[in-house]
Design goal:
The structure is a homodimer of 458-residue chains. Chain A has 458 residues and is α/β, with parallel strands linked by helices. Chain A folds into two domains: 26-90 and 254-454, Zn peptidases (Aminopeptidase), CATH 3.40.630; 93-249, Glucose Oxidase, domain 1 (3-Layer(bba) Sandwich). Helices cover 38% and strands 24% of the residues of chain A. Chain A has 13 helices and 16 strands. The first copy, chain A, has helices at 2-37, 40-51, 59-72, 135-146, 164-169, 173-184, 226-238, 290-309, 331-342, 369-376, 379-382, 419-422, 435-454; strands at residues 79-91, 97-102, 105-108, 111-113, 125-132, 150-153, 189-193, 221-224, 243-247, 251-265, 270-280, 316-323, 346-352, 360-366, 389-392, 408-414. In chain A, helix 1 (2-37) packs antiparallel against helix 13. Chain A binds chain B through residues 31-32, 35-36, 159-160, 162-164, 197-198, 359, 361, 384-386, 388-389, 415, 417-418, 421, 434-437, 440, and chain B through 31-32, 35-36, 159-160, 162-164, 197-198, 359, 361, 384-386, 388-389, 415, 417-418, 421, 434-437, 440.
Chain lengths: 458, 458
């Protein structure tokens, strides 16, 4: 009996070691294949340099749908299809202009309208400026001091944060809800310091919401470059009565028809279990959105390309989903979940890459403790590829709506330091992408999906 | 008795926890101070944009000595001084030219002379080309096939490596010893594919050595851009008889007087124990060397600035050493060790930053197992700052000569993926530096030195 026990233990250990060796070997093949034989960088070259900016409802967005669908059709999926989704259609119009009128001196500053903003009335707006650093400060000033003014939100992202996304989270309320809060106190417009840790001349676009205020109370809102914000703040100190002028002609058109792009390969053993990997196809309109989120799109496609090159057939169904409209509506993510629910689909796993094409550092996991512990145990497989960080936290916006009870949702965590140098700004271009960093991200995503596919997730 | 034992254990544990809390708190202060109140980025701005390239023996190198000495004098050291060192003085001369003569077509390609190379004879050289990928291949071809030819070394850095420095190590023999090996078989010149993982138009400089071949056998050697190498290789396939032409007018002048710059603050408890932190002040001549190694210089200076800002007085003596001539001679590192030995100094620790100003990932440690284990136990303090990697390996070239028996030598390990995009090339400029990444490196170095200073290293 004892001998049998020893034999059993020996066999269990042997099998575990063999499985680990097999995984180690496959990890090596995944990284090797991605670093020497990938397509993601040339796909991104096309998506960025030939297709270009892809704001929801734009021609660019439509071209991106067509291009990625065509490329996905070469990757050996069982089917590649589109999911119809109606998306907001906001257009910037003419390039914005803005200046500080400091007594007789006019100082031009770079601004850009925030997504969803209305135009300036009769195409221009000039008013005194009041600088604030928080909604509390705004409210304590009260309607008396705010009425008829332009509110200037100038709380910088906190440089002391280690993860740049924490610095973003701590400042983005000003951009998102600044206009509605200021309008409630009678402001005529808002200017928001760009979400950027650097001092430079790029205004950074981004979504904003008027919330539930009535339409007649909408006020125009724009982002100003960080250098512009510093200058405005400094000038206000010497001349609190300066006037700020800005002009923007953006507008919201009727919703437009657009698409999520989906590639699907049926699982060989558990076709009913669905694993999703994706990024979002839309971008802001000021640049080609190479980091946000061209990178995530081509990395997700690369997962399938690597499996194809290594002749790996997933046991569970794999879907590569390129979501539309993450930036200003999340309609694609919501539509995907709506259809998944209607079709009674069982999603076991979703992975999103939407934090830029930088060197991957790890994963942010949205799951229960048991799955977190299970996945964290795979660390030793990842560490040779310099993937060290397994934390609980937000996964991704587009996979946010997915609610299968057993689902594990994961966000790829690339190095965050440079992300907000480019985020939503005119310099988020292909030149800002390093091929190897992009590829390492794709390989890391592939490796995680392989592990999920090989191991039951409860 | 038992009660006393419990009490003792309780006290020991309490002291350990308090020490850990104190360290955690001080780490927070270090990172906070560096990310919000550092000088390294503006120092580097000056060193890169005002001083510029700093090849040993050049005016730039002399200006860098003067500038950094002056800045160091503001940081609260007990003394700042120069160590005289004679350095090689190689000059590039006129910008090199090169072209492929493919029948009647002349195709210009970008090259740069390698450091220490001689000029082309009578200022030009034209010969048939033989492409090889290793010294073995070269030798197997033999003198018959090599004599009178230009040897073209074209083995790329291996993209499949995860750490870009491993890819560099696997290819750099071609650059370093290519000329001597080819000359031994009668070649008239060598052209070496640039040490670059990217395909682009930058030739990458770097040191080379003629070894012990006699002076009359020296042949001119240059690096060609990776795109140029691809083109030359492709053209050779269709026309093996093409001629390659290159012209360079570099020369080696008599050795020049230069300096290491040293700032020293005496330890409050163990002044006899010396801790060194440094980088190298010289750079190649094609750009300002912001990553190699302007970053390491200003990060090392920042360590003292952070200690000053936090009013931290080290228990052991701390020296910030800016070494001269790492790139083409290592004379500064050797001189430092020579003087340390002559003065019977006891070095307990040395830390070098010479792998670029990118996001820090960890440390490479040259020490015995006991110290490696001890330092690795500090990981939990570093992980909140995304410092995960503690490995045994090479520390740094300049601290390489240090041989105190009890010394622990460490190299900062930043993310390596982009390093060879810039290394020794004309694009290693200030624009390639991200302020936060540079600062995080400096903070990480400061934190390690603090831990070394607080804990006895045997």
């Amino acid at each position: 009996m004892k001998r049998n026990l020893f034999l059993s233990l020996f066999l269990v250990n042997t099998i575990a070691v063999l499985a680990q060796n097999k995984d180690q070997q496959f990890f090596k093949e995944i990284y090797n294949s991605t670093l020497t034989n990938s397509k993601c960088y040339s796909w991104l070259d096309h998506l960025s340099n030939d297709v270009g900016a892809r704001l929801s409802g734009s021609t660019g967005a439509q071209k991106a749908v067509e291009y990625t669908k065509k490329q996905m059709e070469t990757l050996g999926f069982d089917k590649v299809y589109l999911q119809e989704v109606m998306v907001p259609h906001w257009v910037r119009g003419e390039k914005e202009t803005a200046y500080i009128q400091d007594n007789k001196t006019k100082i031009k500053v770079p601004i850009c309208a925030l997504g969803g903003s209305i135009a300036t009335p009769q195409n221009d707006l000039a008013a005194q400026v009041i600088e604030v650093h928080s909604f509390n400060e705004l409210k304590s000033l009260g309607a008396d001091k705010i009425k008829g003014k332009i509110v200037f939100y100038n709380r910088p992202m906190n440089n002391a944060e280690i993860d740049a996304f924490d610095a973003y989270s701590g400042a983005v309320d000003q951009r998102y809800a600044g206009a509605q809060e200021a309008s409630n106190l009678g402001a005529v417009g808002t200017i928001v310091r760009s979400m950027n840790l650097k001092l430079d001349d790029y205004p950074h676009a981004g979504g904003q919401s008027y919330g539930d205020i009535s339409k007649d109370k909408y006020i125009p809102t724009a982002a100003i470059s960080t250098n512009g914000a510093e200058l405005l703040s400094k000038t206000l100190k010497t001349n609190p009565n300066l006037k700020f002028y800005f002009k923007q002609s953006c507008q919201t058109l009727p919703d437009a028809l657009s698409y999520n792009v989906v590639g699907e390969i049926k699982g060989t053993e558990h076709p009913e279990n669905i694993m999703v990997v994706g990024g979002h196809l839309d971008s802001w309109d000021l640049a080609d959105g190479s980091h946000d989120d061209g990178a995530g799109v081509v990395q997700s496609m690369e997962v399938m390309n690597v499996f194809k090159n290594l002749n790996y057939k997933p046991k569970n169904t794999l879907r590569v989903v390129l979501f539309m409209n993450e930036e200003n509506g999340l309609r694609g993510g919501n539509k995907y979940e709506e259809l998944a629910k209607a079709n009674n689909e069982k999603h076991i796993f979703a992975l999103e890459s939407d934090e830029g094409g930088f060197t991957p550092r790890g994963f942010s996991l949205e799951c229960d403790d048991a799955n977190f512990d299970k996945i964290s145990k795979w660390k030793p497989l990842f560490e040779p590829y310099l993937i060290h960080s397994f934390t609980k936290g937000h996964s991704g916006s587009d996979i946010g709506p997915l609610t299968s009870p057993e689902i594990v949702k994961v966000g790829l965590k690339p190095d965050s330091q440079r992300y907000f140098d480019y985020h939503h700004a005119a310099n988020d271009k292909f030149e800002a992408i390093n091929k190897r960093e992009l590829e390492l991200g794709a390989a890391t995503m592939t490796a995680l999906i392989y592990m999920i596919d090989q191991n039951d997730i409860d």
